[in-house]
Specification:
It is a single chain. By secondary structure, this protein is of the alpha+beta class. It folds into 2 domains: 49 residues; 143 residues, Sandwich (Jelly Rolls), CATH 2.60.120. It has 2 helices and 14 strands. The strands form 4 sheets. Strands 1, 5, 10, 11 and 14 form a 5-stranded antiparallel sheet that branches. A 4-stranded antiparallel sheet has the order 4-12-7-8, with no helix packed on it. α1 runs antiparallel to α2. The radius of gyration is 23 Å and the shape is elongated. It starts with a helix and ends with a helix.
Length: 193
């Protein structure tokens, strides 16, 4: 009987673990490198005109992190606000802080999501950078981007999500649990006879 209970618990953990959220990866990425890059050409972040990037989510998932190639230009320690909005201009999440200083190589500004908003596949989202100190920071452009050429200018960024299990996966996990519970009840009934 003890062995049966242990087997049921282990099976339940495995089923629930398989149905939980897992790291899906990038739903949008035009940054070639994940951790560092060599700054070559940037779009200055100002108070009135700031660069932004629109992207279409490749799959549905909860936002995990954003990796932005934004760097401090002159060491004034500018506070940058990076805002994620949907196509209706609803703010889904915003991050505020000082991006890394410009070096060669420069670290990617890694912003972890706290709200984990749901991003839907096929929907358009926008990231906008703003600051109160004009010209103190820049968003790296195509020098480290997969979109080469000024005519195709895009700030470099990677958007990472946690995948959400499909309803079919959850149904299979639930069915598996019912089968395990049913077989355990049947065994217990046989041994009591």
């Amino acid at each position: 009987m003890k062995r049966l209970v242990v087997n049921l618990l282990v099976s339940a953990v495995v089923c629930l673990g398989a149905a939980s959220q897992t790291q899906a990866g990038y739903i949008f990425k035009n940054l070639i490198y994940d951790e560092t890059y060599t700054p070559l050409a940037g779009w200055t972040i100002t108070t009135t005109q700031s660069p932004d990037i629109s992207f279409i989510a490749a799959e549905t998932g909860r936002l995990s992190e954003v990796k932005a190639a934004i760097w401090q230009a002159n060491g004034n320690n500018p506070i940058i606000t990076l805002t994620l909005t949907d196509s209706f201009n609803n703010v889904l999440e915003a991050w505020t802080g000082a991006p890394p200083l410009i070096h060669s190589p420069t670290e990617v500004w890694d912003l972890m999501s706290v709200k984990n908003p749901l991003l839907q596949a096929g929907q358009t989202y926008q990231l906008t950078a703003t600051t109160a100190i004009p010209n103190a920071a820049a968003w790296e452009l195509d020098s480290n981007s997969l979109d080469q050429g000024w005519s195709q200018f895009r700030p470099t960024v990677g958007v990472d999500v946690l995948s959400i299990p499909e309803p079919g996966t959850l149904a299979l996990a639930g069915l598996g649990m019912l089968v395990l519970i049913g077989s355990a009840a049947r065994r217990r009934h046989r041994t009591s006879e």
